[in-house]
């Protein structure tokens, strides 16, 4: 029974993380598209966010009593950035046509 509860909780957390990834990608798109040069602005944000993700991953490794994979944290940040970039590129292609 405990295993089923753990599986259910893991599925719930996965859905919540996916929702946050999607929300953040949409927010990045909106912020970038409000700028005169969306792709250049996003490239700058991408560098800053990537650095922030690495810092969080390193801090988690150093100060957390619970082992959290820094690679997993980095993957979440990378997924947000990939989705954000794709959304911006698609929006720009849509406005050109």
Automatic annotation (TrEMBL):
Source organism, top-level taxon: Bacteria
Name of the protein in its database record: Chemotaxis protein
């Amino acid at each position: 029974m405990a295993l089923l509860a753990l599986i259910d909780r893991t599925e719930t957390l996965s859905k919540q993380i996916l929702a946050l990834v999607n929300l953040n990608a949409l927010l990045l798109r909106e912020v970038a598209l409000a700028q005169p040069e969306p792709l250049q602005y996003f490239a700058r944000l991408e560098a800053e966010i990537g650095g922030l993700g690495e810092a969080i991953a390193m801090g988690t490794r150093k100060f957390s009593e619970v082992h959290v994979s820094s690679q997993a944290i980095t993957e979440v940040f990378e997924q947000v950035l990939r989705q954000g970039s794709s959304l911006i590129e698609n929006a720009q292609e849509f406005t050109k046509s």
